[in-house]
Amino acid sequence: HLLYLLRAFDKIAERRKVFKIETVGDCYVAATGLPEPNPNHAVAMARFAKDIVVSMSMLVQQLEVTLGPDTTDLGIRVGIHSGPVTAGVLRGQRSRFQLFGDTMNTAARMESTSQPGRIQCSEETAELLISSGKADWLIKRESKVSAKGKGELQTYFLNVSSKGSQGSASFHEMEVPDQEASRQRLIEWNVQSMLAILKQIVARRMAAAASKSVVHESFKVVKSRTASIDASLADTKNTIDEVVEIITLPKYKSKVVAKQEDPDSVKLYPDVKKQLHAFVSAIAEGYRDNHFHNFEHASHVAMSVQKLLSRIVAPFEFEEELDDSHKTLHDHTYGITSDPLTHFACFLSALIHDVDHMGIPNSQIINEDLPLAKKYHNKSIAEQNSVDIAWTLLMEDEFEALRNTIYKSDGEYKRFRQLVVNGVMATDIVDKELKALRNGRWAKAFKEKQLEESPTDAINRKATIVIEHLIQASDVSHTMQHWHIYRKWNERFFLECYKAYHEGRAEKDPTENWYKGEIGFFDFYIIPLTKKLKECGVFGVSSDEYLNYAEQNRKEWELRGQEVVAEMVELAHSQIGVPRAPIVAEEED
Q1: What is the rounded distance in angstroms from the CA atom of residue 550 to the CA atom of residue 544?
Q2: With b meaning 16 or more CB within 10 Å and e meaning fewer, what string describes 198-216?
Q3: What is the Cα–Cα distance from 414 to 418, expressed in whole angstroms?
């Protein structure tokens, strides 16, 4: 995908008569005024820089459908400097044309000290633009930048509108995100991701039928459902009561694996695709316009689930010893990798886990004595509500073809339902009783002496608790990714909490303890959770990656957190308002 972006830049360079020098990693180096002299080289480079910034904005929106949430957060920094250079060809196995000299070093400093979505130019380039009548393209940077080997330099940001005419908006201010277009791209990404898993489900089911030499008509989309499956919905117990310690996953069957065709070759019925799109769209509509608990967050969690499931690996010491690598992977991952229905249930759990979230915690729902609190007996209120809303939607007649593709038997239905319930309930990380129960289940599976149970139950016990922790980790995966991702979602959660407090729907002012609270969150929840991912031995390098990012973000927060909180408070005051001071009544003498 980086090559996709670079090729787009190449086309712009060709159109603008800009000479591409090289690409070094994710750095694109280009020049104007050579090899053919160009008296307006500064203007030409400024226009090229503008074009690639605008192009970058459009391209990442297109890639969001393929790559998923946060893709539009990808940005580009541009730096421009003008001056003499030395050109030459480096000899060797990979001879290439290069530019050398102080001008190249200064251009590199302009890029590294620029800002995402902005074009920074040196004073030398600014003077050339001014002499070309483009003074209104420039915004003098308020403070000088410190450039390695150069000291402090006065620089300028380019201020050119997206149409190439004179304007007053800088690049990062020009593009106003189209929220509806972004939501549609996320819907499409979720649909495509789920379709891919559905094809795996059908391919596995067809292989199972073929291994028995049976023509299995239920692979076709049918309009009938067994009464026993849908009748189970009439059960009056609350969703949380369905949480189980052990979910039985399918056993490994070598004949089925041997006969399974490439899932990409599976053709799903058009009705299935249409219904899936309609279902995901309805789920998106079910999310409220919260700062944090919104459809984009759900998509981000789904992407993390997909990432972790795709990175499940077999232990290296077994890879060359056993001929059947599928069985090795099945055994090592407690059967999680062998069941595409499990993958689909995990993805769906992530997608629906915050549907209809009110932007307030369960404790506030209880304090306000809302009907949902009574309905769910003050336990995991938001989580149970999300499951019930999504499940009721899925069971509607218009999604019958979709249901018939997801599950075909009572056994598949039961496993699917249990996985979704356990998965969504695992996202309630505040309830102390539930947390204690989960810790107890983890200890039974991985820490305590072997229980007196069958080997099958022991494996399924581990699989069940690992799946719950996979979804838990995905729900807070922003804390285990790059700093800017953590920073983005932390700010959104802060704004959501601040809004609730500002509206009188939260007891504590988040501005008072946010800094220390985040350190505690890392120390007592995030880092221990990442260590569990590593301890279970299923996720390979991803567990190390998550742990390393969590520890790095924790250190970065300790250093910069108070400054970040001050910025978020200022943002909250400007967007939401300053909390009203309490009114104190005084008696007259």
Answers
A1: 10
A2: bbbbbbbbbbbbbbeeeee
A3: 6
In this predicted structure, the answer to whether residue 101 has a pLDDT above a threshold of 80 is yes
Retrieve residue 271's tokens: 């009705």
- Report whether the peptide linkage leading into residue 315 is cis, meaning its omega lies within 30 degrees of zero: no
Nearest CA-CA partner of 201 in 391, 352, 426, 409: 409
Strand duo 119-122 + 78-80: pairing: parallel
DSSP 388: H
- pLDDT for 144-200, tens place per residue? 888 877 888 999 999 855 444 333 333 333 344 567 888 999 999 999 999 999 999
Taking the C-alpha atoms of residue 436 and residue 487, their distance in angstroms, rounded to an integer, is 29
pLDDT value at 406 more than 50: yes
Rounded to an integer, what is the distance from CA 110 to the centroid of its chain?
31
pLDDT tens string 10-51: 899 888 889 888 887 788 899 998 888 888 899 999 999 999
| Strand arrangement of the beta sheet that strand 155-158 belongs to | 78-80, 119-122, 155-158, 138-140
**Parallel, antiparallel, or unpaired for β 86-90 and 119-122?**
unpaired
Long-range contacts of 535-540 (CB under 8 A, 24+ apart): 535/446, 536/446, 536/462, 536/466, 536/469, 537/315, 537/332, 538/312, 538/332, 538/333, 538/334, 538/336, 538/466, 539/308, 539/311, 539/312, 539/313, 540/311, 540/312, 540/313
User: Rounded to whole angstroms, how far apart are CA atoms 42 and 494?
Assistant: 43
Q: Among all chains, which residue has been given the structure tokens 């600014």?
A: 126
| CA–CA dist 480, 486 (Å, integer) | 7
For the whole model, what pTM was predicted?
A: 0.78
pLDDT in tens, 77-86: 999 999 988 8
Q: Is residue 98's pLDDT more than 50?
A: yes
DSSP structure class, residue 162 = T
* pLDDT at residue 536 tops 60: yes
What does the DSSP 8-state code read for residue 217?
Answer: G
**Number of helical (H) and strand (E) elements in the chain, helices listed first:** 24, 10
Q: Are 336 and 466 in contact (CB under 8 A)?
A: yes
Cα 206 to Cα 210: distance, rounded to the nearest angstrom: 6
Name the token pair of 92.
């060797």
Nearest CA among 219, 210, 346, 229 for reference residue 272: 219
Tokens coding 98: 């290069």
Classify residue 166 by its DSSP letter.
B
Q: Which residues pair with 139 in a beta bridge?
A: 157
> What percent of the chain has a predicted confidence (pLDDT) above 70?
85
Q: What is the largest CA-CA distance in the chain?
A: 96
Collapsing DSSP to helix, strand or coil, 289 comes out as coil
**What does the mean pLDDT of the chain come to?**
85
**In 3D, which of 348, 424, 345 has the Cα closest to residue 381?**
424
